[in-house]
Design brief:
mainly alpha, single chain, 164 residues
Length: 164
């Protein structure tokens, strides 16, 4: 069972990896590539209590008060959950001696969530099938989740340097 130190470390690894992914997204946006607007994730979540899980187009759904901060909070909470998944699979010892392969593997595997849950729920179809460039969008998602995986590794390395 993990102690409080490990729980805090998992949270920091998840937050750190999500921040790395956000920097990656800012670079992509600066290069003119489309990136996810997390306010739309908040809008989607805001419609859940109304019994609405899927949308034809989340951009055309009724806006929700506070959707941007809600979407960003969900984004970071999911990053923490994915870090917990990594530690749950590979054990708390990974936090003490992080290696890149488990983090990269979990990062890439978690791309299933946007491809097969979030994209259909937001109206983009399974694996972006309802968008003009599904293959390109899927490859971008895989790359972004690989960056997230690397971010978990880098965050754990940094944490081990400062947490002594």
């Amino acid at each position: 069972m993990a102690g409080m130190d490990e729980v805090v470390k998992v949270i920091l690894v998840g937050v750190g990896a999500t921040a790395v992914m956000d920097v990656w997204s800012m670079i992509q946006k600066g290069l003119g590539m489309p990136t996810l607007n997390y306010a739309l994730v908040g809008r989607w979540a805001g419609h859940l209590p109304r019994g609405r899980f899927t949308h034809a187009s989340i951009g055309r759904a009724e806006p929700i008060t506070g959707e941007a901060p809600l979407g960003w909070a969900i984004h970071y909470a999911v990053g923490i959950a994915f870090a917990a998944l990594l530690v749950g699979i590979f054990g708390v010892q990974w936090l003490a001696v992080p290696t890149v392969l488990p983090a990269l593997l979990v990062g890439i595997v978690t791309v299933a969530v946007p491809l097969f849950v979030m994209q259909p729920a937001l109206g983009a179809g399974f694996a972006s099938s309802r968008t003009p460039t599904p293959l390109k969008n899927c490859l971008r998602s895989v790359a972004t989740h690989a960056v997230f995986g690397l971010g978990m590794y880098w965050a754990a390395l940094l944490l081990n340097r400062v947490w002594a």
